[in-house]
Amino acid sequence: MVLPISSITLRRLNMKLKNPFTTSFGTMQTKGFFIIEAADDDGHKGFGESVAFSSPWYTEETVETTKHMIKDFLINIIRANKIQHPSEVRDLFKPVKRNNMAKAAVEGAIWDLYSKQQDITLAQALGGTKQTIEVGISLGIQPTVDELLKKISRHVEEGYKRIKIKIKPGWDYDVLKEVRKNFPDTQIMADANSAYTLDDIDHLRKLDELNLMMIEQPLAHDDIIDHAKLQSVIETPVCLDESIHSADDARKAIELKSCQIINVKIGRVGGLAEAKAIHDLCHEHGINIWCGGMLEAGVGRAHNIALTTLPQFTMPGDTAGSSLYWEKDIIRPEVTVQDGIIPIPDKPGIGYTIDKEALESFTVEKEIFPI
Ligand SMILES: O=C(O)CCC(=O)c1ccccc1C(=O)O
Ligand SMILES: [Mg+2]
Predict the structure, then answer these.
(1) pLDDT in tens, 12-68
(2) Among protein residues, the one whose CA lies closest to atom 11 of ligand 1
(3) Is 18 designated active site?
(4) What is the Cα–Cα distance from 112 to 90, expressed in whole angstroms?
(5) Which residues form the active site (predicted)?
(6) Active-site residue, selected from the candidate residues 67, 166, 168, 276
């Protein structure tokens, strides 16, 4: 049976983050992104969210490249092909190299549309099994250690299951040592966003004494060789984020022992089908995975929640509550977290309703493409 799609709408939104978010690369305050709406003639609407940032610091994609890819390539592919199941979109998009975040935004809208047509949840469509998921929070680099400690206290009290701390040279060992001293029993991890090289091995080895859950992407964004060298001489488990763009990348990293853990982001790997393939591979190899975040608005957050219902997502992810990022999110209800837990919504598709007024108020550009 063909999966009917009658139009795809591309909406560009601008939303201001409640708090600036600082990584080893710089600070973000507003987020531009696309909400993709895939509609059929029976009134079903599926939604996807693009996660590329305005500048290419995390991967090579940007808001502008996302638009170019979707408008000039991906929509034409959808138009030219009959789709029976959303898992086919991954192969249809293969002739377009990389540009994973653009692909994921369109593919995600089609998964949501399909789930609504079938009257099942997106989690069910993916084969998810959990009724609730556990989440942690990611804290950007703060102006002072004191401010970091205050934020950690607040989130530990709220019940977040683990605290991730962004690090960079000059904001690492001493800061984490202070954190560990104040929070001896909290699950703490660090994310370097590729700020180090193998020259820093001795420095990174000092982190072993702090009993961190893991160190995320310490070395180059495109590396799996040096990470294997690093992992062989440090005890702290290495987690890869930027380096993994596909199940094939994950296979190679596992084979080389470049990491013990993988952060799976739907956008970075090109969509839900690829994310599920990475999940299945890691399940087979006993590699723990968790769902990363890209400072998403509600639609992206809902997709992350659905993906995390798959069983090998054994570690708390970065999908924190909407109100930590936004004055007002674009979904109803907003994502709320209690004691570090998010219940899986039971409505069809992503399970959250689009707040049309909010969506409209953040929209700066809109284009409809008939399919
Ligand atoms: O809170 C979130 O959504 C995740 C925050 C985060 O760590 C992050 C935010 C933007 C870009 C990259 C990363 C990352 O995981 O490396
Ligand atoms: Mg990361």
Answers:
(1) 999 999 999 998 888 999 999 999 999 999 999 999 999 999 999 999 999 999 999
(2) 294
(3) no
(4) 15
(5) 166, 265
(6) 166
Q: What is the pTM of this model?
A: 0.98
**Mutation pick for ligand 1 pocket among 294, 308, 342 (CB with most ligand atoms within 8 Å):** 294
Instruction: Classify domain 7-121+353-370 at the CATH superfamily level.
Output: Enolase-like, N-terminal domain (3.30.390.10)
Strand pairing of 331-332 and 353-354? antiparallel
Predicted complex: ipTM over 0.85 = yes
Query: Which ligand lies nearest to the CA atom of residue 318 in the structure?
Result: 1
**Residue of 57, 72, 83, 130 whose CA lies nearest to 367:** 72
322 touches ligand 1 (CB under 6 Å): no
Residue 295 in contact with ligand 1 by CB distance below 6 A: yes
Q: Is 94 a catalytic residue?
A: no
Q: Which fold has domain 125-343?
A: TIM Barrel (3.20.20)
Give the pLDDT confidence of 177-215 residue by residue, as tens digits.
Answer: 999 999 999 999 999 999 999 999 999 999 999 999 999
Q: Is 96:106 a contact under the CB 8 Å cutoff?
A: no
Query: Which tokens sit at 43?
Result: 């009134």
